[in-house]
């Protein structure tokens, strides 16, 4: 057996500490090395125990979890998984945590906590093991605060209004999606995004992107017409697919089974875009664990789409983009900072660009 992932659980609720300890310890590859009821106790135990991963509650006594996270990511960067209540306030705080460098988020149920979390034990264990492999960067304090409102330019006629951009991402993807979307032109093609995220958080994700990018961002709704200059985020707990309705593209939400363990699934989005947009689409796969989206991206490439994968050096978790690259689904593999420009170039370059894999 290899080295176990050593976890410190930080939560002011004794019940949550007990449940998370039981759920995580049930995995033979995880060892809960300690618990803490507040950030001051946690700080001492981090120094003493040197955990691989910390789970951190947001609302705690003595020091807010976000303030403590900022100190961790500034002074001693390490993988942190946030445990946040599935409420509007909890969702807003969670996205601030992800901006500060948290790897992922676990939704804390508001009722029947023990049954809910034990029913998701394999998911929670996977999140922790994935976090242990993540690339953690020190906090960049120079980046613009995401609460800053951006003035949206009116959309103009675009040279290829039928183009569709489909983006799939998972662990570490919230900030990656934000960076890509924020650098796209306001009059660019429509963008559909599947980001693995608990149901209750995706609307807040869309709202935050809408406030901080020049595009119009919303959580997708069933039957919603797809327009250039707009971004549509798959709601948590529903698959997002693209369909045609007459001359228009529209969003279709599907409440079907999980695909690759996810709902929404990147494969569902990519497959649907391959079916109805084909060569008039651009597929992008970003950071994330597992293989969701890889097969769908290959279908997109085979349908004539231009496909992009995030490279290993800039991925928080080089899982999904690695699998996509290895099966031949990726035409261009790029660092995150170059992806938006490559999307814009691909919109205007035409199909000849799609023959080259780099």
Average of the residue pLDDT scores: 89
The CATH topology of the largest domain is Rossmann fold
Number of strands: 14
Compressed to H and E, one letter per element, the order equals EHEHEHEHEHHEHEHEEEEHEHEHEH
**Which stretches are low in confidence, meaning pLDDT under 50 for 5 or more residues running?**
143-161
InterPro entries: CheB-like, CheB_C, CheY-like_superfamily, Sig_transdc_resp-reg_Me-estase, Sig_transdc_resp-reg_receiver
Main location: cytoplasm
Domain Response regulatory: 6-123
Modified residues (4-aspartylphosphate): 57
Describe what is shown at a glance:
This protein has 358 residues and is of the alpha/beta class.
Describe the structure in your own words:
It catalyses: [protein]-L-glutamate 5-O-methyl ester + H2O = L-glutamyl-[protein] + methanol + H(+); L-glutaminyl-[protein] + H2O = L-glutamyl-[protein] + NH4(+). Keywords: Chemotaxis, Cytoplasm, Hydrolase, Phosphoprotein. By secondary structure, this protein is an alpha/beta fold. It has 2 domains: 5-132, Rossmann fold, CATH 3.40.50.2300; 164-355, Rossmann fold (3-Layer(aba) Sandwich), CATH 3.40.50.180. Helices cover 36% and strands 21% of the residues. The chain contains 12 helices and 14 strands. The strands form 3 sheets. It has a 7-stranded parallel sheet with strand order 8-9-7-6-12-13-14, with helices on both faces. Helix 10 links the parallel strand 12 (281-285) and strand 13 (306-310). Helix 3 (65-75) runs parallel beside helix 4 (88-100). The longest helix has 14 residues, at 336-349. The radius of gyration is 20 Å and the shape is elongated. It starts with a strand and ends in a 9-residue tail after the last helix. Residues 143-161 have low confidence and may be disordered.
């Amino acid at each position: 057996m290899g080295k176990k992932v050593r976890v410190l659980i930080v939560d002011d609720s004794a019940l949550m500490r007990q449940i998370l300890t039981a759920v995580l310890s049930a995995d033979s590859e995880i060892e809960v090395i300690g618990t803490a009821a507040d950030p001051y106790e946690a700080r001492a135990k981090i120094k003493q125990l040197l955990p691989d991963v910390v789970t951190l509650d947001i609302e705690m006594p003595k020091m807010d979890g976000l303030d403590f996270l900022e100190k961790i990511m500034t002074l001693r960067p390490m993988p942190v998984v946030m445990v946040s209540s599935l409420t509007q306030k909890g969702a807003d705080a969670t996205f601030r945590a992800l901006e500060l460098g948290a790897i992922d988020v676990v939704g804390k149920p508001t009722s029947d906590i023990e049954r809910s979390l034990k029913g998701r034990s394999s998911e929670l264990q996977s999140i922790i093991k994935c976090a242990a492999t993540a690339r953690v960067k020190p906090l960049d304090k120079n980046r613009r605060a995401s609460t800053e409102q951006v003035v949206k330019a009116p959309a103009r006629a675009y040279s290829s209004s039928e183009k569709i951009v489909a983006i799939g991402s998972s662990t570490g993807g919230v900030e990656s999606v934000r960076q890509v979307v924020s650098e796209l032109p306001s009059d660019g093609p429509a963008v559909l995004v599947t980001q693995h995220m608990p149901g209750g958080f995706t609307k807040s994700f869309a709202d935050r992107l809408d406030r901080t990018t020049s595009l119009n961002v919303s959580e997708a709704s069933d039957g919603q017409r797809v327009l250039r200059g707009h971004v549509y985020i798959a709601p948590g707990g529903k698959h997002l697919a693209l369909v045609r309705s007459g001359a228009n593209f529209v969003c279709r939400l599907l409440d079907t089974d999980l695909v690759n363990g996810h709902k929404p699934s990147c494969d569902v989005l990519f497959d649907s875009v391959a079916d109805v947009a084909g060569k008039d689409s651009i597929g992008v796969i970003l950071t994330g664990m597992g293989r969701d989206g890889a097969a769908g991206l290959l279908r997109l490439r085979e349908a004539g789409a231009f496909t992009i994968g995030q490279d290993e050096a800039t991925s928080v978790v080089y899982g999904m983009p690695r699998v996509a690259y290895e099966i031949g689904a990726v035409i261009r593999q790029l660092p995150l900072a170059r992806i938006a420009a490559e999307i814009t170039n691909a919109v205007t370059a035409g199909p000849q660009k799609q023959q080259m894999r780099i």
